[in-house]
Design goal:
By secondary structure, the chain is of the alpha/beta class. It has 9 helices and 9 strands. Strands 1-2-4-5-6-7-8-9 form an 8-stranded mixed β-barrel.
C-alpha cells in the first residue's frame, strides 16, 4: 500500500518526520548533503514503531477502534459476574458420571466452616475415599462453599455426596425445594444425607410425620434412599425403631463405637469432630465405614 495512504495509520509524531523527509527532497542538494535524506528517513521509521503501539493501546482502552478490543481480556470481569450470579445453582462446570472410590474406608464431611480447602494437599496426604459436603439448610440457606467443594472433591478423585441440615420448625416442602434445586442428581457420586440433630419446638408426632414425608419425597426425587445422620443419644431418644430400611451414619465422639438401643447396624461411624488433615485449617469431622459394609451401598 502506498505511503500516502499508510501515513494515516502511524503516529502524528512519525508523520511529522515523514513530512520533513519529503520536504528535504525539494530543498536539499543530495550532492552537498548525501546522507541527510537517509538520516531523516530512519528517524521517521524509529518514531513510528513505539508511538504506533501506544496509539493502539489507547484504542483498546475504549477510545479508539473496537476491532482491537476483541483480543483484550476485558470480558473476564463480566464473565466472573455471571458465574457468581449462578453460584447457588451451580454444582459442576460440566457433568460427570458417578464414581465410587473404595481404596480407603475413611472419609470426612465439610462445610463453609472449613474455609477454602486445598483438595490436592488433602488427598495427597490423607487416606480417605469419600466426602460429604454441606449443600443446604432449612428452606433457603445454600452453603457458599458448596459448588467449589463439590467440584474440587470430585476432581481429585474422591466420592462426593451432599447433605441437607434438616430444620423441624421449617416447612418440609420448602426444605425439599431448597435441597432438590441445589443438589443435582447427575453431580453426585453418593446418595444425599439428611442431617437430623434436633427436634425443634414441634411435638414428637409432628416431628416424625414431617420427617417421614420429607425423606419419602427425597427418595422419590433422587431414586435412591438418602443416608440418615444423627448422634447416638438423639437416635436413642427420638428415632429408635424408625426408618428401618435406611442406612444411618451415627456420630459418637468417644473411643468406643456407638450403641443403638434397637441394635440397629449402621454403615458409618462419625468418630470425631476434631480431626486434623492436610489442606484444611482447623478441625474437621472424620468418619469411617463399619465392618461388613462397602461404600458401594451408598452409590448414587
Amino acid at each position: 500500500m502506498p505511503w500516502a495512504v499508510q501515513k494515516g495509520k502511524i503516529s502524528n509524531f512519525a508523520a511529522y518526520y515523514y513530512d520533513i523527509f519529503i520536504m528535504s527532497l525539494s530543498f536539499h542538494n543530495p550532492m552537498r548533503f548525501p546522507y541527510t535524506h537517509l538520516i531523516i528517513y530512519i528517524l521517521a521509521i524509529t518514531f513510528a514503531l513505539p508511538f504506533d503501539a501506544a496509539a493502539r493501546k489507547k484504542e483498546t482502552d475504549g477510545k479508539g477502534m473496537a476491532a482491537y478490543a476483541a483480543i483484550e481480556p476485558d470480558a473476564q470481569p463480566q464473565k466472573a459476574k455471571r458465574e457468581k450470579a449462578v453460584t447457588r445453582a451451580l454444582a459442576l462446570d460440566q457433568p460427570s458420571s458417578a464414581k465410587v472410590n473404595t481404596r480407603y474406608r475413611e472419609g470426612i464431611d465439610v462445610s463453609h466452616y472449613q474455609g477454602k480447602i486445598d483438595w490436592d494437599a488433602l488427598t495427597e496426604e490423607t487416606p480417605i475415599s469419600y466426602v460429604y459436603i454441606k449443600a443446604t439448610e432449612g428452606a433457603a440457606l445454600v452453603d457458599d462453599t458448596y459448588a467449589y467443594n463439590l467440584r474440587e472433591a470430585r476432581r481429585v478423585g474422591l466420592s462426593a455426596g451432599s447433605y441437607h441440615f434438616y430444620r423441624p420448625n421449617v416447612d418440609w416442602k420448602s426444605q425439599l425445594e431448597n435441597l432438590t434445586s441445589t443438589v443435582l442428581r447427575e453431580d453426585q457420586d453418593l446418595v444425599p444425607i439428611i442431617d437430623i440433630e434436633h427436634r425443634g419446638n414441634v411435638n414428637y408426632d409432628k416431628f416424625i410425620a414431617d420427617l417421614n414425608a420429607f425423606v419419602r419425597e427425597v427418595t422419590k426425587h433422587y431414586g435412591k434412599k438418602p443416608l440418615l445422620y444423627t448422634f447416638q443419644n438423639f437416635y436413642n431418644k427420638y428415632l429408635c425403631g424408625t426408618f428401618k430400611d435406611f442406612h444411618w451414619m451415627i456420630a459418637r465422639y468417644r473411643p468406643d463405637e456407638p450403641t443403638l438401643d434397637d441394635s440397629r447396624k449402621y454403615i458409618i461411624w462419625q468418630y470425631t469432630a476434631k480431626g486434623s488433615v492436610s489442606g484444611i485449617r482447623g478441625n474437621v469431622d472424620r468418619s469411617r465405614l463399619m465392618d461388613g459394609f462397602s461404600l458401594s451401598a451408598l452409590a448414587m
